[in-house]
Amino acid sequence: MNRAWIGFGSAPEGSMKSRIHSFGLKLLSRVRPSEVLLKSVTKDVSALEIVHPASINSRLVRRRLRHIAVRGASVHKKFLYGSVCLLPVTSVFTVLPLPNIPFFWVLFRAYSHWRALQGSERLQLLVSDCSDQWKVLEKEKSNSVKDDNPSENGRYSPWKLRPSEKLDRFLESKNLDEGLDCETILSICQEYDLDKIDVLKYRDLP
């Protein structure tokens, strides 16, 4: 399926395949940033390091992460079931001479929701308050890594919050209600080695 998608992208401009590829890119650009975040939290992730503005309380940051994880688990489970139910419906388009784009799109979305659901559950484990659940993570970490991630009470903690005054300086005198301008976003991306294209495409999402 990936090869077919690449083939659509290399099709001559103005052709049907090129138009389908452009339409697919528009659909992909509507994927929420939270879904991309959750998909990046794989089962191999056993520790988190979160950099946040120093002006924001660390507890608030952690609470927000828990909210993203809990809400993500609920939302992506619902959409996963919905996508799976749509697969038999879209499969009827195989009788057409054209590629069954609806089927492959629904299949892709089902896979994406499954990965986001797995990431939600993993993130809940990582930012939970229950130290008993961390025993699962401790088994996945070597002794050297354990020593590098102590919590406040000296026990192992899978998350580390790092307040950053640099981020505060980037955000000072900015009207955050209107969003960040491109110049500020590019500066943050350069400072923290982020992909500016990926960040900018989510800026104007409703």
Automatic annotation (TrEMBL):
The record's GO CC annotations read: mitochondrial inner membrane
- Asked whether the UniProt record includes Transmembrane helix among its keywords, one would answer yes
Q: Name one GO biological process term.
A: proton transmembrane transport
Q: Where are the membrane-spanning stretches?
A: 79-108
**Keywords of the record:** Membrane, Transmembrane, Transmembrane helix
* Name used for this protein in its record: Uncharacterized protein
Please tell me the species this chain comes from. Sorghum bicolor
The lineage is: Eukaryota, Viridiplantae, Streptophyta, Embryophyta, Tracheophyta
